[in-house]
Structure prediction request, 268 residues.
Amino acid sequence: MRRISHHRRKGLTFSFQFPILFLFILVSACGPQKGKLRIYGEFENLPHADVLLYSKDGGLPVPLDTIHIRKGRFDYQTAPDDAEPHTYILVYPNFSTLTFMARRGTEVRIQGDALSLSQVNVEGADSVIRQEKKSGKAQIAIGRPLPKSKIIKQKKDAYLLIGFMADWKYGSSQVSFHIRRALDEHPDSLTAFTYLLDIDKTNIKPVDKAYEERWQTYCDFRGWSGPLLARYGIRNIPLFILVDPKGKVVAMGSDYNRDIKAAVERVP
Prediction:
């Protein structure tokens, strides 16, 4: 009889502790850990995707990170470097953005339909700024003058080869390779300009001294939020643009060999 009662007590003790342990694990998994910010939610019509998240003011351990959406859901946690609100920019697959401010110890829930990102609901953030997908009407087009900009300066009587790129974007390494080769082939009639969408200064590599006078680079460390990108209607990188000495766009595209090479070969 004693043995039976002993086993019953052990069984009762286990069955009583198990739901408590399960509840503790469940609560711990749902909320943000101490000192962290939780960003989570779900999207309809977006079952599987990777979106970029970046912060320039200490909101992330590294300026740029990736949030993985699986089966329409995502759950991400980060540890801001202090208790103040930080700015976060979420870049959707169509390159429209969602900017919000949030602080550690809180939860930001993002929920909506990928077919209408301007209507996404955001809860728990200190403030929210939405930027809809840029117009499909290109601001630059072959045969038209390149819109003037204080950033991009073209030398007189020279063609200009422009490349938009970023260290974090696959395929961007080819931009510098093709520009360098084009400059070597046309040393007297071609200049170059690269616009970098990086947000980490450590990723910026200086131009070789041999090209300093003919190759300009620019980066404002704002990623897709740069005003020039919105003005030109640029929605994807890498991208090449070739401009003739009169400022007219003669070729443009993402594939150098397919879209640009033939036009560059016609440069005197």
Notes: Residues 2-30 form the longest helix (29 residues). The two ends are 104 Å apart (CA to CA).
